[in-house]
Write a structure and sequence with these properties.
There is one protein chain. The protein is of the alpha/beta class. 41% of the residues lie in helices and 24% in strands. It has 10 helices and 13 strands. The strands form 3 sheets. The chain has a 6-stranded mixed β-sheet with strand order 8-12-7-11-9-10, with helices on one face. Strands 4-3-5-13-6 form a 5-stranded mixed β-sheet. A two-stranded antiparallel sheet has the order 1-2. Helix 1 crosses helix 2.
Length: 283
C-alpha cells in the first residue's frame, strides 16, 4: 500500500464509482480496478461493494478516514519542505472551533500577515475533540479549542473566561437569566455539554428539554435564527453572527463558564511559523 493506492481509493470513494474515478485520474478503468483488488488482497479485506455506486464496508470507511489524514499530512509535509527550500514562505497549519472565529478574524490573522507577508494559512474547522485528534496526527500544529477538555497531553495557554448566552428570535424576560428560566424551553446545545447540562438541570430541579444537539456554535446559532429553539453558546461566538439580530441573555451559571485555549503538542519544539504566530497573539 503506497500513497498512489490511497489517492486512487480516496478518489473512488469521493466520485462514487471506479468509472468516474478513472476519468478524474486520467487512467483506464481496468488497471484502476485491478489496483483496488490488489489493495484488498494486501489488506485481506473487502473495502467496498461494487455496483452502480460503490458502498463502503466498515474497513473501507476506516481506510478512507485514514487515507484522508495521511494524504493531508503528506501534502503539508511537501509544502513545508518546499517553503523551507525557498526560504521565503511560512505555512501555518491551524485548527479552530467555530466559536473562536471572532477571536481569529478580529485582525489576528490580518496583523500577522502584514508582519509576515509570505505567511500562508491552512485552517481546519472542527469541534474541540476532532482538533485534538488532528493535532495528535500532526495534520495541524496548533489548535484554538474551547473548554472543557483534557489538556494533560498538550501544552495549553488560555484566554479570558466568558459566560454562556442564550439566543432566540424572541426576547427573554431579562438580560441575565438562570437555569430555572430555561425549564422546559426547547434548547439547542453542544453535544459534548449534554451530560454537564443534564446534571446542572437536575441539581436545580429544572426540566431539561433538548430539541437539537450540534457540534459547533455556528450550527446552533443558525438553528436559533430559524425559531427552532434557544441556542446555548459561548458569548463571543455570537459576535460573528450578530447580523442575525437574535435576542441574547447571559446565563448566570458558574459551571458553564468557558474559555478558549490555544494548544500545541507537548514536549515538542514548535515550528518557526507557529511560534511567531503565538508570539503575535500574545503581544
Amino acid at each position: 500500500m503506497d500513497i498512489r493506492h490511497l489517492e486512487c481509493f480516496k478518489t473512488i470513494v469521493e466520485e462514487g464509482s471506479i468509472l468516474k474515478a478513472s476519468i478524474k485520474l486520467n487512467m483506464a478503468q481496468p488497471p484502476l480496478s485491478r489496483m483496488m483488488h490488489l489493495l484488498e488482497d494486501e489488506l485481506q479485506t473487502t473495502l467496498f461493494i461494487r455496483g452502480r455506486r460503490i458502498t463502503l464496508t466498515n474497513t473501507g470507511r476506516l481506510l478512507y478516514e485514514k487515507a484522508c489524514s495521511i494524504l493531508e499530512l503528506t501534502g503539508n509535509t511537501y509544502k513545508e519542505i518546499q517553503n523551507l527550500e525557498t526560504k521565503n514562505e511560512i505555512t501555518l497549519n491551524i485548527g479552530i472551533v467555530s466559536s473562536s472565529t471572532e477571536f481569529l478574524y478580529n485582525k489576528t490573522i490580518q496583523n500577522f500577515h502584514q508582519q509576515y507577508p509570505f505567511a500562508r494559512f491552512n485552517i481546519q474547522e472542527a469541534n474541540t475533540y476532532q482538533l485534538m485528534e488532528l493535532l495528535n496526527q500532526r495534520i495541524i500544529d496548533l489548535a484554538i479549542v474551547r473548554t472543557p477538555f483534557d489538556d494533560t497531553l498538550f501544552h495549553a495557554k488560555y484566554f479570558k473566561e466568558e459566560p454562556m448566552i442564550v439566543l432566540h428570535k424572541n426576547p427573554m424576560s431579562n438580560d441575565t437569566i438562570i437555569i430555572k428560566d430555561l425549564t422546559k424551553k426547547p434548547l439547542i446545545i453542544y453535544r459534548r455539554f449534554k451530560d454537564l447540562l443534564t446534571t446542572i438541570f437536575k441539581n436545580y430541579s429544572a426540566d431539561l428539554n433538548i430539541i437539537a444537539e450540534v457540534d459547533d456554535a455556528k450550527t446552533a446559532i443558525l438553528l436559533a435564527s430559524t425559531g427552532l429553539g434557544y441556542a446555548l453558546v459561548p458569548q463571543s461566538a455570537y459576535q460573528t453572527f450578530s447580523h442575525l439580530d437574535l435576542y441574547s441573555s447571559v446565563l448566570n451559571e458558574k459551571q458553564l463558564i468557558t474559555r478558549l485555549g490555544m494548544i500545541t503538542r507537548k514536549n515538542e519544539n514548535l515550528k518557526k511559523g507557529i511560534q511567531l504566530f503565538i508570539d503575535s497573539i500574545e503581544q
